[in-house]
Amino acid sequence: MSSTEHVQTIEQLARPTPLLIRHSPYFIGAAIVVALAASASFDGYILNILMQATTFAIAVFGLSVVLGLCGQINLAQAAFFGFGAYAVGIGTADYQISYWLCLLAGCIMALLAGAVLGMTTLRLGGHYLAMVTISFQQVVTLVMINAIWLTHGPDGVGKIGRPALFQSSQSYLAFCVAMLALVGYLVWHLPDTRLGRAMRAVRDNELAAGVNGIDVFRTKIYAFAICAVLGGLGGGLFAGGFAYISPDQFSFAESIVFLTMSLLGGVASPIGSAIGTGLLILIPEWLRFLKSVPGLYLAIYGLSVILIIRYMPDGIWGFVTTFFDRFRRKVKLPAEGLPLVLAPAKTGGEMVLEVTGLAKHFGGLKAVDDVDIAVRRGGVHALIGPNGSGKTTTLNVLSGLYEATAGRVLLDGTDVTTMPPHLRAAAGLGRTFQNIRLFRSMTALENVIIGAERPGNTLIGNGGEAALTLRAMAALAFVGLGPRANELISSFSYGHQRLIEIARALAANPTLLLLDEPAAGLNSTEKLELHELLKRIAAQGLTILIIDHDMTLVSEAAQHITVLNFGRRIADGESMAVLRHPDVVSAYLGTD
After folding, report:
1. How many CB atoms lie within 10 A of CB 364?
2. Please, are residues 267 and 64 in contact by the beta-carbon 8 Å criterion?
3. Is the pLDDT of residue 15 over 90?
4. Which of 69, 261, 385, 477 could form a disulfide with 276 if both were Cys (CB 3.0 to 4.6 A apart)?
5. Which tens digit of pLDDT belongs to each residue from 547-591?
6. Model confidence over 65-103: pLDDT tens digits?
7. Residue 311: what are its φ and ψ, rounded to 5°?
8. H helix and E strand count, the chain
9. Alpha-helix residue ranges (DSSP H) falling in 190-215
10. Helix 216-242 vs helix 77-94: angle between axes, to the nearest 10 degrees?
């Protein structure tokens, strides 16, 4: 079957049910809740509690994206919340601008601030990122307090307007609940989109995400920007709901409250975020009767939060879902569909990979020094050498994880020397790692889908999510793990995890596949199975560059061998001749 016929067949099989139909129960339930919010009779106190919980939850949804999905910490959510609130407050109260324009302006301001903050800080990561976001939060708070000409300073902004359609508190609450339901649906569905999968991959393993075609830095920025815009939206709704705002409502302490709400309910899910928000707002109200005893109210409140976080590390919703997962019937596996087809691009010449004068120096250490490699199309080429000879460093330079000190790398006729990992993946480079790098929170199928949606994969066509699933199932079936597609990575043995990593690379339909010690840690039976797998891959015309210490596997699988020692090439040529070369024997066995 040609690649064109394969794409047409996939498009015919990939006919997913529209989302609106599949998720109709959610929309029906949301409509009922909105109707109740609009018609039920609440006193002013209850209305305020519900208004606060609803608007806060939208901001906390943003933390579900940046922290729960992408794994990046944000301790400045109250600042973005404040952008939205002050845009609505100042715009409607001081300048009588339309509420809708002010709400839009607040969201855009928060979006731009989040994107700029992300672009300037997200390369730091970890505690450095936390420190920067704290500093940003403090700066914004100081501006709110001291820029009296703009923000009215500590006195705050009053008489904030609402939309003409929602002038009453009851109708405005219904509007906020509708917005909460809409945002909640989008955040709930985000993990199953291409962007959401990219965020999850970045959270689990940035290196693996990059070599599978994901722009790690851009993905982080998107996550941070989405978090910020949801903060701005929540703030704008909050300002309209309470008609008064002041700087103390958007301080660093409020950012900590948002973070606690997210962690309390379960940061990985918008449902958990909503639960955490509701509880953290309601618990103080439930304990109001204890306020007559000094300190007791705060002690019980703090102890409740600590106990929940301590004994439910994944949050309340995470605990609930984990408990019920053991009783849940396994999800029906998608059909494996078509056999795996590999159709590597052939835009270059006879050589798929041409490396000339490659060098990588770490200070005074020359890990790779003036190495030339030429990998012929459609063959298996081995790169071998003793421990510390520079093999893995070479692969890391070829895949863009390290920047070359000198030299040139051509992949299928394209100069990729200065390209980052995700662009090399788009150009047709796939790889596995010596230390397995899978996305641990995902199933085998989800891991392989990320490989299948590599930019430039011509075998997916326009079938969308269903086509990706079919391609991933074909890759898993090719390595013998199709029936276990819906199992989490943690349930697989070491050898099977290696096969999943290979399946992920194959699903991307690369032009060149780099295998970094695929036999490491495998028993003799698994090595034989790996050898047969390599034969089946090579039979479809995919070019392989393999590193391994198993000389039996190398001699049987590879037609051409390049040997490194102390970072320099000492032999190159036909397999058996190279293995008998005196310099190679000396490098491995030493000399008298």
Report:
1. 5
2. yes
3. no
4. 261
5. 988 888 888 889 999 999 999 999 999 998 998 888 888 877 665
6. 999 999 999 999 999 999 999 999 999 999 999 999 999
7. -100, -5
8. 25, 12
9. 194-204, 206-211
10. 40
Amino acid at 177: V
Is the Cβ–Cβ distance between 199 and 219 less than 8 Å? yes
Dihedral of CA atoms 183, 185, 186, 191 in degrees, nearest 10, equals 130
Q: Which amino acid is at 175?
A: F
Sequence-distant (≥ 6) Cβ neighbours of residue 52 within 8 angstroms: 238, 241, 242, 281
Tokens of 133: 């976001």
- pLDDT, one tens digit per residue, over 350-387 is 899 999 999 999 988 999 999 999 999 999 999 999 98
What pLDDT score does 304 carry? 75
Whether 469 contacts 445, CB under 8 Å: yes
Mean pLDDT (the chain, rounded) = 89
Among 464, 438, 460, which residue's Cα sits nearest to residue 192?
A: 464
Q: How distant is the alpha carbon of residue 74 from its chain centre?
A: 16
For residue 143, pLDDT beyond 70: yes
Tell me what pLDDT residue 465 has.
82
Q: What is the pLDDT of residue 268?
A: 84
Residue type at position 162:
R
Q: Are 57 and 274 in contact (CB under 8 A)?
A: yes
Residue at token pair 């590599």: 454
Angstrom distance (rounded) from CA 517 to CA 584: 19
Rounded Cα gap, residues 297 and 301, in angstroms: 6
Strands (E), 160-284: 244-245
Q: Rounded mean pLDDT of 475-497?
A: 93
Domain ranges in the chain are: 41-251, 344-428+512-587
Cβ contact 458:228 at 8 Å: no
Tokens of 519: 């036999």
CA dist 259 to 205, 262, 280, Å?
23, 5, 11
Tell me the C-alpha distance between 194 and 213, whole Å.
12
Cα(381)–Cα(512) distance, integer angstroms = 11
Model-level pTM? 0.91
- Euclidean distance between CA atoms 154 and 132, whole angstroms: 25
In sequence order, the 6+-apart residues with CB closer than 8 A to the CB of 49 are 281, 282, 285
Show the tokens assigned to 327.
Answer: 């009783």
- Mean pLDDT along residues 532-539: 92
Residue 144 has pLDDT above 60, yes or no: yes
Give the residue among 394, 382, 397 at the shortest CA–CA distance from 550.
Answer: 382
Among 227, 218, 224, CA closest to 198: 218
Give, rounded to a whole angstrom, the gap between the first and last alpha carbons of the chain. Answer: 57
What is the residue whose two structure tokens read 């851009």? 218
Under a CB-based contact definition with an 8 Å cutoff, are residues 161 and 244 in contact?
Answer: no
pLDDT band of residue 335 (cuts 50, 70, 90) is low
For residue 508, how many other CB atoms are within 10 A of its CB? Answer: 29
pLDDT in tens, 453-484: 998 888 776 667 888 888 999 999 999 999 99
Contacts of 534 by beta carbon, 8 Å cutoff, 6+ apart: 380, 544, 546, 557
